## 1
Amino acid sequence: MSENEMKLVVVGAGGRMGQTLIRVIHETPSVTLHAAIEREGSPFLGKDAGELSGVGPIGVAVTSDPLQAFLNAEGVVDFTAPAASVTFAGLAAQARIVHVIGTTGCSADDEEKFTAASRHARVVKSGNMSLGVNLLSVLTKQAARALPAEGWDIEIIEMHHKHKVDAPSGTALLLGEAAAAGRGIDLASQSVRVRDGHTGPRPGGTIGFATLRGGSVVGDHSVILAGEGELVTLSHSARDRSIFARGAVAAALWARNKKPGQYSMLDVLGLSNQ
Ligand SMILES: NC(=O)C1=CN([C@@H]2O[C@H](COP(=O)(O)OP(=O)(O)OC[C@H]3O[C@@H](n4cnc5c(N)ncnc54)[C@H](OP(=O)(O)O)[C@@H]3O)[C@@H](O)[C@H]2O)C=CC1
Ligand SMILES: O=C(O)C1=N[C@H](C(=O)O)C[C@H](O)C1
């Protein structure tokens, strides 16, 4: 290990993203896996993180003591669950390190806690860490701005694997926010998240969401702008979870020398002014 390699902790190390992160960190020269964390009672505790993720033994055993790990690390990469991410945010603030949060399905209350933690930690949070989806959000904002709300309806469709527990996906909401920003409207009051039964005609100016779940789909998203007699569809298909892990590692490295604060993947990618 070279002295300049950034020491990262992966929390939720046994999960789908946790294992992918361990693989990506292992193959990225500028970072090193400092610790791998799972919850108390997890069957992964004590196992070698490299063996768990398929890269072979790396001499880092999975433990359940995040604070101890954070105090000697420079960053934590967190794709777990909302309550866990809130706890990790408090600990990352205590340790004054970088906290990259990929967890989705967080409440407004959780978001306030991340903001509070960002007084001391450098927090990078995004519903999608891939370059492609962040570019798609820029294109969505531009399309929503260019096509008039009267006559052009916006619908967002997403499909994910059958294990996903939150809906709409963090990405769908991120794309919804981009469309709302392009239109200059408030997403929370203008979104239609569910349709069932006699709904009546579509209210003009709203942004609709549709959720599909099944099989092993990594993550598909489409933004449809539907006009009279024509459709514009902007879409992204994730084929491999390493796109999210590579983005998260890039985010940790980017935030390494930043001031405490809350940042997005658009900041990391230099796309926030688009
Ligand atoms: N922003 C992005 O680019 C992406 C975001 N995601 C999001 O990341 C999250 C995780 O997804 P995925 O990997 O598929 O889910 P998994 O369920 O496969 O993994 C989550 C892991 O976190 C662990 N965990 C939960 N609570 C704790 C805790 N308190 N302490 C330590 N470990 C804990 C789980 O353990 P246990 O099983 O014991 O609960 C599990 O191993 C989801 O919110 C998903 O939407 C996913 C991909 C990309
Ligand atoms: O749970 C997943 O798997 C994914 N979650 C994120 C989301 O909610 O958008 C990102 C990606 O699509 C995969």
Note: The first strand starts at residue 6 and ends at 11.
## 2
Amino acid sequence: MTIWVGTSWKMNKTLDEARDYARGLVAGLSGQELGDVQPFVIPPATAIAAVAGILADDSRVLVGAQNAHWEDAGAWTGELSVPQVADAGARLVEIGHSERREHFGETDRTVRLKVAATLRHGLTPLLCIGEPGDVKDRGRSTPYILEQASRALEGLDDDQRARVLIAYEPIWAIGEHGRPATVEELAEPFAALGQEYGGGVAGLLYGGSVSLDNATDLLGIDHVDGLFVGRTAWELDGYLQLLRRATGS
Ligand SMILES: O=C(CO)COP(=O)(O)O
């Protein structure tokens, strides 16, 4: 079974920094046995092509985009389409991250359209779901995320679903003000996701304050097929160390 370990750089890194990271990653992985671990890197759009060009030297690392529009082309100022990010070298498209839902008007409807567009063009959607802290406080995390996932995947057939990655990223666990979810807190949501989607999608990932301290424990949770990482992997050494944790090397 594939273990996905990837990072989104969010709105970080110049082209030079992105190239340095990508070159370092190729060098750092050279000769390293990855086993079932599938690395992926999601740079800002400005760096997708450069990073994909460098990582082509290690074809084991997938490159993604942090967002893409649902239409293929047209009058959508400031947006990028799935064919455009694919043209730049992206093979994954991250969709519905909570930062996009909160700040950029991403809704269940636009998320669903983007998942469908990504599949239509043969790329892998990385669908992000996650509940705010007040929903967790009311004990409603699991129904909330199941509803989000079901709305995003509405209308897909089994073959299409099988190509989707789902990342559960509780909003209260993400970023510098977030607190990492504990293994105990994640057991129930992942049991529910596993029951609903386990085996039916490409993988179920956890994201939110993943660190070198908690990565191994998080990967040990039932139905967790991988980790989606921000800050800990923005420095290359952190990402390489996470990959080593995942491969057990
Ligand atoms: O949002 C995330 C990945 O998409 C997680 O970010 P952090 O790992 O920095 O909490």
Note: Residues 15-29 form the longest helix (15 residues).
